[in-house]
Amino acid sequence: MTAHNRVLMDSSPAKTPARPAAQIAGRLGFDRPGYFETPLPGVKFFWADEPVPRAPLLYDSGLVIILQGGKTIFVDDKVFAYDRDHYLVLGLPLALECETRASREEPLVGLFIDVDLPMLFELSAMTPARERASEESSVSGALGIEPVRLSDAMRDSAWRLLTCLRDPDETAALGPAMVREVLFRALQGDHSHVLRSMTRPDGRCATIARILRGVQADVATKRSVADMAREAGMSEAGFYRAFRTATGSSPLQYIKSLRLTRARSLIVHDNMQAKAAAAAVGYESSSQFSREFKAYFGVTAAQARESAYAFIKS
Fold it and tell me: Cβ–Cβ contacts within 10 Å for residue 207, how many?
């Protein structure tokens, strides 16, 4: 891997003292490590108190804000590290690999925030871009992903959002406005082009996102590159290049990653037998499913509960 292709952000000391994030997790009722829905729609909470080795994971589009601990993600030949001084912006749902840095002394604590598109359109119109970057203007932006340095204002907004979740009345009354404030802070940043690309209906990012939404909604349906290119209104070669540039993987690799991850979720969370899970996500051959599952996750389908990030329901 060349230095040019390796995008690794440094972990400089936080500008504000570390807060007792694990205590806040306990007060929120999340007394075990995991990935949780919160009472506020579109906001998820996650925490871990031990490291998790590099393993496949699907990321939805949205904002990922680390308040303590850190993560490193790997997509194609690029590396992105983010921590309490950097947050992550994803304009597309991406299949990638993730490594968690956490310990009992310093647990990983963070928020995942879905991007509400009507709100994004409204705030984009009110917040002029600080840079006139095209979608191809940066290595990370071309992938529909951007690690961004966390400003003091964004850090304070994220902490207020987290602490308001402790009280149901406060969550209902103030939570939506705090989510809006976080999204506003993200659009104020110098690297907001990934978010802004989501508001361009005729842009490459929006086109690929539309195709990915269809794939996620019906993962069992067979799709060829030609089928998806036709749906996108592009040539087959042009679609393949655009898809790989935007997601870091080929269309068929992406679909296989999605199917395997969805099957693992069915096995782990719905207690489905491996053969039934394979059929549910579009596999016709159980033996092929078993081979590809073991190659992708490093464990057999029978050992699925032991695979890293299995606690996340896809």
Answer: 20
305 three-state secondary structure: helix
CATH tag, 21-197: 2.60.120
- What's the CATH fold of domain 204-306? Arc Repressor Mutant, subunit A (1.10.10)
CA nearest to 48, candidates 277, 309, 242, 274: 309
Q: Is residue 14 very low, low, confident or very high in pLDDT (cuts 50, 70, 90)?
A: very low
Instruction: With H, G, I as helix, E, B as strand and everything else as coil, classify residue 111.
Output: strand
What distance in Å separates the CA atoms of residue 123 and residue 121, rounded to the nearest whole number? 6
The CATH 2.60.120 domain(s) of the chain lie at 21-197
Identity at 52, one-letter amino acid code:
V
User: Given this model, what pLDDT does residue 146 score?
Assistant: 80
Residue of 39 and 138 predicted with greater confidence? 39
Q: How many residues does the chain have?
A: 314
Q: Are 36 and 62 in contact (CB under 8 A)?
A: no
Give the model's confidence band at 239: pLDDT under 50 very low, under 70 low, under 90 confident, else very high: very high
Query: What gap in Å lies between CA 119 and CA 134, rounded to an integer?
Result: 22
The burial class, CB within 10 Å (0-12 / 13-18 / 19+), for 175 is buried
Q: What is the location of CATH 1.10.10.60 in the chain?
A: 204-306
| Alpha-carbon gap, residue 59 to 93, rounded angstroms | 5
DSSP 48-103: ESS-EEEEEEEE-SEEEEEEESEEEEEETTEEEEEETTEEEEESS-EEEEEEEE--
Residue identified by tokens 């529909």 is: 144
Q: What is the pLDDT of residues 257-288, one digit of tens each?
A: 999 999 999 999 999 999 999 999 999 999 99
Task: Give the least confident one: 188-197, 211-220, 293-302.
Answer: 188-197
| Strand order from edge to edge, sheet including 43-48 | 34-37, 43-48, 108-113, 62-68, 86-90, 145-149
* Residues whose CB is less than 8 angstroms from the CB of residue 5 and which lie 6 or more positions away in sequence, other chains included: 77, 78, 139
